[in-house]
Amino acid sequence: MEASVKYICLLGFFVVLVIAGFGEVNGAGECGRANPDMEAFKLAPCASAAQDEDASVSSSCCAQVKKLGQNPKCLCAVMLSNTAKSSGIKPEIAMTIPKRCNIADRPVGYKCGAYTLP
């Protein structure tokens, strides 16, 4: 009897673990498994260029934007993320960075929230 109670408790524990695992989001979002807010930290070299359209865009910024720009949904999610907004990024200016970096294969005309990539 005692063994069956332990077995039932153990089985119940595993059921709880499985259910808890299904509640967690492990699927792919705009940036795959990466969180757009965490990806926004990679755009730190773009901070001044994303606040002032007259500021020069560094090569390290362009490299990161080119990498993220391979997935336009991710690039948009990052540029519109809470991390980007709280760091003073102006989305309407940030959207001009791919063009200012002369990225040839940028997603021209891609709708990004209320903004369009030039």
Automatic annotation (TrEMBL):
Q: Which domain of life is it from?
A: Eukaryota
Q: What is this protein called?
A: Uncharacterized protein
